[in-house]
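Journal club side-thread
Mid-discussion, someone asked how the predicted structure for our own chain would compare to the paper's figures. Pasting it here so we can look after the session.
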Amino acid sequence: MRQIREILKQKILLGHTHRAIAASLGVSAGAVGETVSRAKQAGISAWQEVEQLEEPALGARLYGVKRAGGDRPLPDPAELDIELRRK
């Protein structure tokens, strides 16, 4: 589960270190660093900006919108059957 808002709250308002935030939330320090880095890239530097955004909007701003389906073509069932029958 993403804890974007809590990570940014502890970093921006309280000024905690990445390790302290990671320990308090039970996530890795890398996840904290990545979230803070993405927030900086998105231009989020003040807590008021984070407060104004809803959770889905905040996630979309930091991580982008997830597209359903993607660009990958679906596999051909006949080809799969042939491949699975091979020894």
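Post-session note: The first helix runs from residue 4 to 13.
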